[in-house]
Task: structure prediction
Amino acid sequence: MKKGLISVLSSVISILVGLLFGLLLLIIVNPAQAFPKFGELLTAGVSSAPKFAKVLYQAAPLIMTGLAVAFAFKTGLFNIGASGQYTVGAFCALACAIIFQMPWWVCLLASVVAGAIWGFFPGLFKSLFNVNEVITSIMFNWIGMMAVNLLCMNLKKGGKLIMLPVAWVSSPIKDRTAALSYANPKAMIPKMGLDTLFDSNYMNISIFIAALVAIVMWVILNRTTFGYELKACGYNKNASIYAGINAKRNIVLSMVISGALAGLGGGLYYLAGTADYTIQKTLLAMGFNGISVALLATSNPIGTIFSALFISYIQVGGESLQPTYAKEMIDIIIAVIIYLSAFALLTKTILSRFIRLDKSNVNADKPAESEGKKA
Result:
């Protein structure tokens, strides 16, 4: 059995266990409505074109933050700073769109650069001073969020960046960025008729951009010398140095690329024109959900496409449970499913050992059979 099939099986088992737990929780709270609502949870994402469009819209940034975490995992690093990189990338994309009136593709490039810079510092500290990247990336999450809030309150374009001009609305909104449809329509990611096809403003080409980036990351990691060196450093840093690989440079580059991917996720989400960045008091969940996406995909770049679609699908399906079940109940079910995705790697290890033992038993019988034939 191939390794890819084992990875898929481990992820599917984790998903099924999570869904069964969710069903059990629904039965405990409201037995009469448990099965009908559980059916809606599983089917709401494809119940209509607009619902499916929302699934794809939310999946695009999830793919990017999942890729950010998965790429770092593949190179032996744990990038828990995807939330900060995502936030900084989103801000730079919106700043270029609203203040500098740039087109959408320039704004996306700005989000990539911003995320890369925010990933550079944890990589540099890890490379030069062997500071654990988990510690530095967590701190940079908060630094990024607070810095973005501060800049939002002080950068000006006529009024403040976070304030809509009075001419656009009946009263100014003081805690969010201006809507791109008014501030700079050319900064919105092209829809190319997909919004009409799916009858939803959520739909644009961001899901295709994210999928293309995932494929490129897979090619880089599995078909290039650069990707081989990055993975070699992750598997065994000392052996890589002995083989002549510049481990310090690769650590920095790994975190830079990881940060760039997360930053691009922020750009894809907010340049769709359907969400405005609001002043935050807690870290954005999209970056942390990327950890779940990466674990569920067992750090496979192609797998992140499907795991992100699943996480987004469950989130959209969870909305259908209201008002029968409280919002907190929905959050618990989604959280459990996401949490159990962490067991995908454990399940993969168990399956690999079981299959390896099974093969060894089969091979053990072959010599005896051959001896019998000789006799």
